Amino acid sequence: MDRLGNVVGGKGIRYVNVDMKTMKSACVDMLKKNHPIFFGSDVGKFSNSKLGIMDTELFDYGLAFNVNLGMSKAERVLVGESAMTHAMVLCAVHIVDGVIKKWRVQNSWGEAAGEKGWFVMTDKCVLSSPHPV
Are strands 118-122 and 53-54 parallel, antiparallel or unpaired? Predict the structure, then answer.
């Protein structure tokens, strides 16, 4: 991502080229050690800031517009349809029978957004967001 960074003289954004299974495993390990994880997300696509929900199935764009958009996250990034638009922090993960169901996200929009600044992001939504860094 050329020219991505919002702090003059700050450390640049670094990417880790691993599959999502490896990335999620590392995130879970970090959270188990009480280390929150900074990440960037495209919050405009699959989120409701009032409810504090981030879920790829929150809106049915196909039903609303009678189209199947069908691009992968990588394709959306390449054509400029998706980018990291907001930074947040993964603070917890909900795992049932070894399967990740959802993540707890701390947002910086203040207590008026979500549940006093807290969001819930489904695991499916993690796949559609830029990877945690």
Answer: parallel
122 alpha carbon, distance to own chain's centre? 9
Which tokens hold the place of 78? 């390449």
Kindly report the pTM of this predicted structure. Answer: 0.75
d(CA 110, CA 74): 30
User: CA 70, CA 89: separation in Å to the nearest integer?
Assistant: 28
Q: What is the DSSP letter of 72?
A: -
- Taking the CA atoms of 2, 46, 132 and 127 in sequence, report the sign of the dihedral they define: negative
CB atoms within 10 A of CB 109: 14
pLDDT at 38 over 80: yes
The angle formed by the CA atoms of residues 129, 11 and 84, to the nearest 5 degrees, is: 20
Look at residue 67 in the predicted model and tell me its pLDDT: 76
Nearest to 77 by CA among 103, 109, 45: 45
At 52, list the tokens. Answer: 């504090």
